[in-house]
Amino acid sequence: MGGLRELAVAFVVPGPCGVAVRDRLKHLTPHDERVLRAVGAHQGALASGDLKARCADGLGHGADTWAARKRELTARSSSRIAGAITKATHDQWALARRCQAAHMKTLAAGIRTLRHRLSLPVGEKGTKRAAGGYRSKGEWFRKSRRLAALEDRHTAAVADRQAGRVRVVRGGKRLLNTRHHLTQAQLTEDQWRQRWEAERWFIAADGESGKRFGNETVRVTPDGEVSIKLPAPLAHLANTRHGRYTLTSTVAFAHRGAEWADRITTNRAVAYRIHLDTGRGRWYLTASWQRPAVKTVPLETARARGMIGVDTNADHFAAYRLDRHGNPVGDPHRFPYDLSGSAGHRDAQIRHALTRLINWAKSAGVAAIGIEDLDFAPEKTREKHGRRKRFRQLVSGIPTGKLKARLVSMAAEHGLSIVAVDPAYTSQWGAQHWQKPLTTPHRTMSRHDAAGIAIGRRALGHPVRRRTAPPPHDRSDRAGHRTVQTGPGDRGREGTRPPTTDHAPRGPSPSGTRKREPSASNTVRDAPSTQQWVQDSLMRTG
Q: How far is residue 368's CA from residue 354's CA, in Å, rounded to a whole number?
């Protein structure tokens, strides 16, 4: 195994700890929409100001500054709304810090690659593990300028992190930059303005266990009636007691409706968020809550009934079923999807493919699905694959993050476990050991199908390499050992076979030098005959 990196140990992925369901607010009156817009704009302005104050505090933030900000917001809204705004602010600031650290890591990786390639002679070829030198002096010069630019960016990012500065905007950086490219986005200025304002609104409230229906700010009754606690400056818009506004629309969660009803009837916490989809002109209500942490099943339990190995590709999942001994069962299965188009279309394609994969896994009777623990962070760098633009687009198109979240949550609902394995060498070794032996006139094996077998065997704890084919008849032990896999504790399991000749050297000679002894003859006529030929009486013909 010299030169190969150490493989990480397979593990069972923890299940999801949160649930979110959504329903449309239908048949809202114009007055309802005006109230929702007023509440969203007012609380959105408060959230923007609180985020600005939090960014100004930087690393000097503490419990005292948090309490001071919350007291200031309470006077302009309510205590619960102020708590929801400050919590959302802290989550957004923490996310910006994590993104800042990831950006610094990417810059550092690019700088290392550029320095390495610039240190090599022009035209020197690279290897599979490291890129070579640049092709011409002109390219070398341009890359040296890019190195200086990346070093400046990295220095600025390090200074920002040490000072506690983050770059964050409510509404999203992408939507903000879209303002300068309205023609390409096929938007008018009014359409962009409506989308920008809707994204910066804030109509959300965290749940409170022990309170009526699990939330005092945005309350939803078992009958689906929705009411909102208005902030102090908008209390005059209330249409019910205690400064609340009740919407004419009702909600009924078709998905997980029984689970949601059980929570609110027992007054357990449920968080709500109301938002406007400007493209469709529809209002939605999203309910979310946390689940108690569920202990993951042991790895041996997940392996007990076999495994389905899944190879993730840019346009399909390649899956193969294996029994608990690591033997492929049946034919490969492929679940295609199309990642072109809008984000909603891509997400729907992923969900549809995962649904078919999970349904097949349930019908096959397995308890777990093996998948690669993909990241691709070092593989998408422009410095490593600068000229291979299509390859970079291919790798970037694989939805690793969304796939993990979707697969784990959907599999948990069907009682399936997810086993993550190290992705190293799965395609290479799968094609080397499994693609050709499993190819038949009626079965076409691709490299991705073979990789699915490699992933499944690694998830089961078996090596990827298949057992060697048996020797021909009348050689060694007449067709010898089998190629199928057996469990470590099964009786009759084959071990290492002893040498076939009794004069094979079993160790060094007494003098310390190994001598080559005479080998047995390879021809039948030269070998001494020790077999007595006996004619069977049943074979006589006359």
A: 14
